[in-house]
Amino acid sequence: MRNQNNITYSHTVSTIYNSDGTVKEFQREKYLPKIKFLENHYGNKFNGITILDVGIGYGAFLSLLEEYVNYENLFGMDPFEESIKIAQNFISAIIKKGQIENENWPFSEKYFDVITCFDVLEHLRKPKIFLGRAKRYLKPNGIVLISTPNKQLPYLLRSVPVVGIPDGNPTHINVRKPNYWKRLAICNNWDIIQSWKGEHLTHIKYVPQILSQIFRFIKLDHRKVPLINAFEQSFCLILQPKKE
């Protein structure tokens, strides 16, 4: 069942994990491109890097990372105790309670090589707070990975009857267009290492499913096709603090 103590998270355990505790394919498709980037960036052994996932949900990303990284180097932070308890049934990473807006996070500063924050910033009234806090907890040359809803035309069509898939999460108070997030990063002294629209073709009915089948048949990555990638569920950013 859905955790009623975490109103920001619309998933149930059964939509994240299979009955044997493995992460469902839908979630693997969502997170594996990020893990692949880290694997390419740090090498296939990850070289003992430390990773903090901010806003863990039920821990699917950390669960997948445990296939690549020693759990002692994996950490999570979440403000909801019940979500932490649920995640701890599936992962061994070290998870602590904390909020992004808190002046101090429950970790040592300059400790992490990587900080991830997936599907969280759209819940914050002032998302730039995350960018400020994250700098304090990154090691020199550390990187941040972010994803947030891709607010382009297909997303705006969610409210259209028959074809739209309504956004049923009332805590999505800061859904923005990709250029907003790019400007926010640059204005807060971050370099954009990479950005893309990805995860899944979605937001409206019928068209994304048809497009998915077509691109699967022709063996082309829909994330890399202009206009088509407006249907992608998320906008993703990889950031690094500007060198002073």
Please provide a written account of the structure.
With 244 residues, the chain is α/β, with parallel strands linked by helices. It has a single domain (13-153, 172-201, 235-241), classed as Vaccinia Virus protein VP39 (Rossmann fold, 3-Layer(aba) Sandwich), CATH 3.40.50.150. Helices cover 29% and strands 22% of the residues. It has a 7-stranded mixed beta sheet, sandwiched between helices. The chain is globular. The protein starts with 12 loop residues before the first helix and ends with a strand. The model has no long low-confidence stretch (mean pLDDT 91).
CATH hierarchy, class: Alpha Beta
**How many strand segments?**
7
Tell me the β content. 15-25%
Average pLDDT, all residues: 91
Please name the fourth-level CATH homologous superfamily.
Vaccinia Virus protein VP39
Distance between the termini: 48 Å
Bin the helical content: 25-40%
The helix count comes to 8
Task: Please state how the strands of the largest beta sheet are arranged side by side.
Answer: 3-2-1-4-5-7-6
| Overall geometric form | globular
The helix/strand class is alpha/beta
What composes the largest sheet?
Answer: 7 strands, mixed
